[in-house]
Design brief:
The structure holds three protein chains of three kinds. By secondary structure, chain A is an alpha+beta fold. Chain A folds into two domains: 9-84; 88-244 and 255-279, outer membrane lipoprotein receptor (LolB), chain A, CATH 2.50.20. In chain A, 21% of the residues lie in helices and 35% in strands. The termini of chain A are close together. Chain B starts with a helix and ends in a 5-residue tail after the last helix. Chain B has one domain. Chain B is elongated, with a radius of gyration of 21 Å. In chain B, helix 5 (79-88) crosses helix 9, helix 8 (111-145) packs antiparallel against helix 9 (166-193) and helix 8 runs antiparallel to helix 13 (247-274). Chain B is built from 13 helices and three strands; from the N terminus they run H-H-H-E-H-H-H-H-H-E-E-H-H-H-H-H. By secondary structure, chain B is mainly alpha-helical. In chain B, strands 2-3 form a two-stranded antiparallel ribbon. Chain C folds into two domains: 2-220, P-loop containing nucleotide triphosphate hydrolases (Rossmann fold); 224-289, 2-Layer Sandwich (Alpha-Beta Plaits). Classes of the chains: A alpha+beta, B mainly alpha, C alpha/beta. Chains in contact: A-B, B-C. At the B-C interface, helix 1 and helix 7 of B face helix 2 and helix 3 of C. Strand 7 of chain A pairs antiparallel with strand 1 (56-59) of chain B, so a sheet runs across the interface.
Chain lengths: 283, 279, 303
């Protein structure tokens, strides 16, 4: 039993190293812009990039579009945020499947409880492994805090043309450097999110929204998380291990440490009363 | 008649202090390890899953009775052979040391029966040791640490679902029993060659330790040794904790061990058949 | 009927021949003395008789059957103590007998075991562990285990070693009783030679693995030279007189006016006659004949 502080969509974690340098420049520049914007509107609401001139000054950002398109991206984000905020509480069943090169584990199940604004609890009857940093590296968390959104144009994802937007948190101390979101404009849901932390880790999340009721609140029915675990080394000689690894016939020893976590959500019960006591359960 | 001899041999084996010591050691070590795991289990768990600690939160009870039973089996794999040889190495040589071959082998019982009964008594002891270890580790483990998935840390981390554990643990302990029977059979053979139990105990343990060390040195030079050394096959119980059990490896190892047991038994019978009792 | 027949029995340990072509016949009802110095091959012979050692050559037949082919059947008719009485020290006397009895298909009822322990005087220590026993007590327990299954042949190797005088008398009486009352055949190896002298009907003396002499104890005692002490009035005169006869070389000593000679039974009268004819007064003529003297003489061990 754990307290788990997130929206299901927030299983998006960032780990691996990726063009940190480029993103750092992007972040710093946009932070300045955002700061100016915030000065103009003290309410903690994200501001769109108003100045093409400033945007164009960023060498590495190639996809900043017209003011009109940026505004529509912002409006899309606002709609999404509004839908997310529409759910005050919910409960859902989770089925979790792990695919990690050096780990073999059975599928696990858990029940997730959420209560606005930020209470989350996951109750697992037995074993479950849940991505850790999802707790504080989430789209909702990003949208709740000051950010700038940069339109990155359109991009195909799974055969559908999506709006691509880069979200850059401007709050000091934010763990996230940048989150790139592929938005399905027909359904107003994020179908793919790539989050990069300031430590350089990257998490890719692909989302499916098959449950119409849940979709109304941007609650996914399926999330596939992919991230790099980095260099790993298993401790040797646990329990006096002396034998050689049992390599399966035809099995290749891969050194890849890409983790894939698939989560299926079902049985959503939204806006139901959930006792606060549930969230007090300590791990 | 052989049952009568077996009964007599079991009476003797289970009246000896060294036999009781074997069971006492297991009965003390297993609860101590379990209590230690109760206190320090999280550290062990974090150590063994350190590669994943940064990325994942674990729920559930992975340091449970099943996991501890698996860990205990691995931990005691060098100690239980010692306890086994303590009895199996003494079972023939002890008669020579005590001079009791003279009263035993002048009974109207064939030497074949006596040797077979003694061999069976050694096997009973070795298997009971493993059984005691299995029962204590699982029962006390479940009582103290509860149930959960089995965490296996080997060349990879394997987490086995609760409904997938019991048969694996049972098979692993059965395989461990076969391994200990092999150790007993080897000690038994050495026991027939000498007139003092120290010799077989030291020789058997020496062989186990040397072969284990040589087998663990990962050079092509020792590859042939690894294939035939019984110590390489004694750890075949671990195959039961691979997500997909490699039955060909299990059966190969089991056959190698059974082969050792059969050869040792036949050799001991031959030696004892021709042996002049001079003590 | 011959209970034991050893024919051409030989046992070699490498270059050393422990038993060298031994022929022995023990008849039913005999108390058969088996004598020889240490290292003569007695123990090896007994071990071959009980199939503890495989003969290099020769045969052991017991009750008319070859031991090699009917080992279990024949051993069921033999009770034995071989050398030291060793038992499972960590078990009680009772438990030792019960276990050994089971292996001999004996009556292991409490009554029978306690009766046997009573026979050897250990009934009060039945439940004591053997490790607390003295050598003498183990010896008694050894006899009890040899009698457990009511055997026809009892092989006793040094059965009275470690016993106190009363114990020795008790065992001697037990042996005689087993022979006379229960018609058992007894094969008795002993270093306590008077014991054989007092109990055995027939005997063999072996040395260096070979039988030196075999026969009825009384016949053997009456055969050969014996030590004769002649007490005379004038020892020097008598000695000088004997020096002039063929008996000169037979003088082995003199003490307090007595002359000691080794003579055969028939020669005693001749010597007495000679001394009388020389006018030498004879106070007494005492022949001393013991198995020990005989044994030592035969095996040439200096006394």
């Amino acid at each position: 039993m754990i307290r788990y502080d997130k929206h299901p969509m927030k299983h998006m974690i960032t780990f691996s190293r990726m063009s940190v340098f480029v993103l750092a420049i992007l972040t710093m520049t946009l932070s300045t812009l955002a700061q100016n914007a915030q000065n103009a509107q003290p309410a903690q609401r994200a501001q769109t990039v108003q100045s093409m001139q400033s945007a164009q000054s960023m060498q590495s950002v190639q996809s900043v579009q017209s003011v009109q398109s940026v505004q529509s991206v912002q409006s899309l984000l606002d709609i999404m945020k509004g839908r997310m905020q529409g759910v005050k509480s919910y409960k859902a069943s989770m089925r979790i499947k792990l695919d990690i090169p050096f780990l073999k584990a059975p599928e696990s199940t858990a029940t997730m409880y959420y209560k606005a604004p930020d209470k989350t609890h996951i109750d697992a009857p037995g074993f479950a492994m849940l991505p850790k940093r999802g707790a504080d590296v989430t789209i909702q968390r990003v949208l709740d805090k000051p950010y700038v959104a940069v339109d990155a144009g359109r991009d195909m994802f799974q055969g559908v043309l999506m709006r691509k937007v880069k979200i850059l948190p401007t709050e000091e101390g934010s763990e996230i450097a940048v989150a790139t979101v592929w938005m399905d404009t027909a359904q107003n849901v994020p179908r793919k999110v790539v989050t990069t932390t300031k430590q350089g880790g990257t998490v890719t999340a692909e989302l499916v929204f098959d449950d119409a009721k849940a979709r109304a609140f941007c609650l996914p029915s399926y999330v596939k998380l992919m991230f790099d675990l980095g260099a790993y080394e298993l401790p040797k000689t646990i329990s006096g291990e002396l034998d050689k690894p049992a390599t399966q016939p035809g099995e290749k020893k891969e050194k890849s440490s890409m983790a894939i976590v698939e989560i299926w959500y079902s049985g959503y019960q939204m806006n139901i009363p959930i006792a606060d006591a549930i969230f007090d359960v300590k791990r | 008649m052989i049952l009568t001899v077996l009964r007599v041999e079991l009476t003797k084996v289970f009246s000896k202090w060294r036999t009781i010591i074997g069971f006492l050691v297991i009965a003390v070590i297993v609860p101590v390890v379990i209590v230690a795991m109760k206190v320090e289990g999280m550290r062990f768990f974090q150590y063994s899953t350190q590669a994943l600690q940064d990325a994942f939160t674990f729920t559930g009870n992975l340091m449970n009775g099943y996991t501890i039973s698996y860990i205990i089996l691995g931990m005691l794999y060098i100690h239980v052979p010692f306890l086994t040889t303590l009895v199996a190495g003494d079972i023939l040589a002890g008669e020579a040391t005590a001079g009791t071959y003279r009263v035993l082998l002048t009974r109207p019982v064939s030497r074949f029966s006596v040797v077979t009964a003694k061999w069976m008594a050694s096997m009973v002891y070795a298997n009971l040791l493993v059984l005691l270890m299995a029962i204590l580790s699982i029962v006390i483990g479940l009582l103290v640490l509860g149930t959960g998935e089995l965490l296996v840390v080997r060349s990879q981390i394997v987490i086995l679902a609760q409904d997938d554990i019991i048969w694996r643990l049972a098979s692993a302990y059965a395989f461990a029993a076969l391994s200990m029977s092999t150790v007993a059979a080897i000690a038994f053979l050495f026991s027939s060659l000498v007139e003092n139990a120290i010799g077989p105990i030291m020789t058997t343990m020496g062989i186990i330790i040397v072969l284990t060390i040589l087998s663990s040195i990962d050079t092509p030079l020792f590859d042939p040794l690894r294939k035939v050394a019984f110590t390489s096959h004694m750890i075949g119980w671990r195959f039961f904790f691979d997500q997909v059990v490699d039955w060909s490896r299990v059966s190969t190892s089991a056959l190698v061990l059974v082969g050792h047991i059969v050869v040792c038994f036949i050799a001991t019978q031959f030696i004892m058949h021709r042996k002049d009792i001079l003590t | 009927m011959n209970v034991i027949e050893l024919r051409g029995l030989r046992k070699k340990f490498g270059d050393f021949t422990a038993v060298d072509g031994l022929d022995i016949t023990v008849r039913k009802g005999d108390i058969y003395g088996f004598l020889g110095p240490n290292g003569a091959g007695k123990s090896t012979t007994i071990r071959m008789m009980l199939s503890l050692i495989r003969p290099t050559e020769g045969t052991v037949r017991l009750f008319g059957e070859p031991l090699a082919e009917h080992r279990e059947a024949l051993l069921s008719r033999i009770g034995a103590i071989v050398e030291r009485p060793d038992f499972y020290n960590y078990l009680t006397a009772y438990r030792n007998l019960e276990m050994l009895g089971r292996l001999s298909r004996a009556d292991v009822s409490r009554a029978n075991i306690m009766r046997l322990l009573g026979v050897v005087g250990l009934d009060t220590r039945a439940m004591s562990k053997v490790k607390t026993f003295s050598h003498g007590m183990k010896q008694r327990l050894g006899i009890a285990q040899a009698l457990l299954h009511n055997p026809d042949l009892i092989v006793l190797d040094e059965p009275t070693t470690g016993l106190d005088p009363q114990g020795m008398v008790d065992i001697r009486e037990l042996i005689l009783d087993l022979s006379r009352t229960h018609c058992k055949t007894i094969f008795l190896s002993s270093h306590i030679l008077p014991e054989v002298e007092l109990t055995a009907t027939r005997m063999v003396i072996i040395n260096k693995g070979k039988a030196i002499v075999e026969g009825a104890v009384q016949d053997l005692l009456n055969a050969g030279r014996m030590k004769v002490t002649i007490d005379v009035a004038e020892p020097e005169l008598a000695t000088a007189s004997i020096q002039r006869t063929p008996f000169a070389s037979r003088i082995v000593g003199n003490a307090e006016g007595a002359i000691v000679l080794l003579l055969e039974r028939a020669e005693i009268a001749n010597l007495v006659q000679h001394l009388s004819s020389e006018g030498i007064a004879i106070h007494s003529v005492v022949p001393v004949r013991s198995l020990e003297e005989y044994f030592l003489d035969l095996t040439r061990i200096p006394s």
